[in-house]
Design brief:
Shape: globular
Radius of gyration: 19 Å
Number of helices: 10
CATH class of the largest domain: Alpha Beta
Strand content: 15-25%
Largest sheet: 6 strands, parallel
Order of helices and strands: EHEHEHEHHHEHEHEEEEHEH
Bound molecules: NADP nicotinamide-adenine-dinucleotide phosphate
Distance between the termini: 50 Å
Length: 282
Amino acid sequence: MSAIMMSGKELAAEMNEEMQAMVEELKMKGVIPGLVVLLVGEDPASQTYVRNKEKRAQALGFHSVIERYSDTISEEQLLNELDRFNQDPMIHGILVQLPLPKQIDSEKILNAIDSKKDIDGFHPINMGKLLIGKPDKIACTPYGIMKLLERHQIEIAGKTAVVIGRSNIVGKPMAQLLLMNDATVTMAHSKTKNLAAIARTADILVVAIGRGHFVTKDFIKPGAAVIDVGMNRDQNGKLIGDVKADEVSEVAGYLTPVPGGVGPMTITMLLYQTIISAQKTI
Ligand code: NAP
């Protein structure tokens, strides 16, 4: 049996239509969702990410701004710039593209974003709200994964979920979202013993470790929903996930492909949260 593929590409396209309608409605009320991306320096990967975000935002009819700064900018100058956008009523979402140059403390910058405009959901206030079960802005990758599970009507309540990886941007918020939806959640990481046996208890297995093809079919409970967050390059430069998809798909019930699974949902949720943030200003 072959697992059902959970396409993030398809769901992102569906959500795009939904978001288009939300933007139209906002415009009729005189509000245009505003997104600013602060880009420091010339890192080519960052330039590409930012351009993609801008293209998607513009296609939806956002007021979309990229603010570019030299990599010699001081922390104080960048904080001042950030404050300008915190105060700007035309801006509903602020994104600081990482990495930042050495002279700047990234944590200090991210913490200075107005939590209401923190569409990445990384601000301690937003992480804290998620932890107490009252989420506002949610980290986009786990949020997108929840949308994928919902789209495929995968039951969460009462199910066993295992999240491998405990980063602040993926693993921790993911575990919290599953817990909030009444799964029984285990978090695993690099010090976990008997990892494959623990993974095999999972009805829902989320893998976010950053090691190409690490998870084999021995990790999988028959019929499980397997979410592959990993984005790795093999020796030929091809994009591969953390999950060995060819063999895992023989055991799992559902699987997200790489590429085209979790990735397209992350940017979608970023835009979605900007729209929600704009709606809240009315
Ligand atoms: P990260 O901050 O590097 O965290 C990796 C986590 O994996 C850590 O908690 C680490 O454990 C755990 N880990 C590493 N090796 C392990 C092993 N052998 N067994 C069990 N656990 C292990 O990574 P991240 O930012 O969460 O990203 C994870 C992957 O997802 C990367 O490939 C990244 O590119 C990808 N990603 C994709 C998207 C997307 O939109 N598709 C978004 C974000 C990230 P310790 O805590 O013990 O070190």
